[in-house]
Amino acid sequence: MTTNDELNEILKKKDKENLKNELKQSLILRTKEGQRNLAYEIVAFANKFGGKLILGIKDDGNFEGKDIFNVDLDKQLIDNICQDKISPVIECSTEFLQNDKGDVLIINIPKRKNIPHAYIVSRTGPEIKSRIYYIRTSHGKRLVRDGQLYWLFKYEDNPNFSYNFKIVLNFSRDPFQILIQDEQPRYVFDYDISLAEINEKVQTMIYEKNENLFPLFIEITPYAFINSFSKVFSHSWLSIIRRDKGSTGYGPLDTSVKKLRISIDNIPLPPKNSILESLSWNIKEIYYPLSIFGFYVPPDTELKIKFDNKGNKSQLILKNEIIELTFIFRFSRYSKGLDFFHPSRMAITDDNLLKQFETQESLMEKYSNIGLSCEFQAIYDFSEADVETIKNYNLYVETIMDLLQNEWNYDYYLSTLPNYKFYAIQNKLNDIEKKIENLNLKVDSILSK
Q: What would be the CATH architecture of the domain defined by 4-151?
């Protein structure tokens, strides 16, 4: 139920008409052409988010006046439009609101539940001969194009892709250094560059068991991640990754598409009260000397980096009218030693490694690891785009997914190592052997008593 206060709040806003609200004069109910346009508007709202058609208000937000509706007849007319001129039928609710400045009829339009709604152009009895589809955009209603119609039938909501992956960082504690030998995925280089300026401060935090250590890794991750974009999207956001027998190449598919360059100057600095800010971390001092930073994104894209107040989560967001990409990084765990599935730890029985590490205990003294659980989300607003643009954005997301799986997903990287399964089995057998040994010691202790 809409109140006068809620209506006044809508009319106070600069953007009175938006994706969920539209103002129309009562005249739209009085002519066949107006009723047809009203049906178009209802279909467009239902095929997007749903919303309100507010009748009795002029485009400038002023009321038409009093006694402009025959409430019962007008409600019946609207119901007939929804039942007879729209397929599938839309169950709208209609409210009559009396305001000091004038009367208003509000049509509340629900979001579609499955297949898209259409305006019925012609029918013979129950058989629909011709229909047209509309969808709501930020600029009003729009006829649905073929590519958009495909999405409407395939997805109930805007197309939404997600991908979960894990990041694990193994590092030495004294001196602090990210391990970047062969047994690490590519993202360790991005972290190594991003943390280089504050290595000594991180080592101090480790030594003092500073509680800010874990939030630090959460905060640095979006910056480490966008550095990897500099490799893939250095010439165009419409790029692909070529992988062949261990070699990797990055190249643009099309450099002529409209694009926006992200440089160091466009990257948001860490906010006040963040760990990075307290450590005087400065992205420009890190990357300017290297002259390697910079990448392209789709036009009108805004880049944001967000931290939560508790230091448990950070986000990297790329957003424009058509697509919203969100990368979420959450703290998962921390432990001493190398990660449980790190090949060097799983192969500790190997003679060569024994010479270097001797025992798992020595690994515990020298190394630590931190884990992050991560999620990538891509949401399209296909109503704002043509078929070719939708195709290009699909390729953009596919390239990002390739980057995530092959260069940022720790579990996937481990699964590609030739001896991974052997090491994993060996490690489990060692664990079982230790448990049996501990159990035997307990049994011996009990029997001795």
A: 2-Layer Sandwich (3.30)
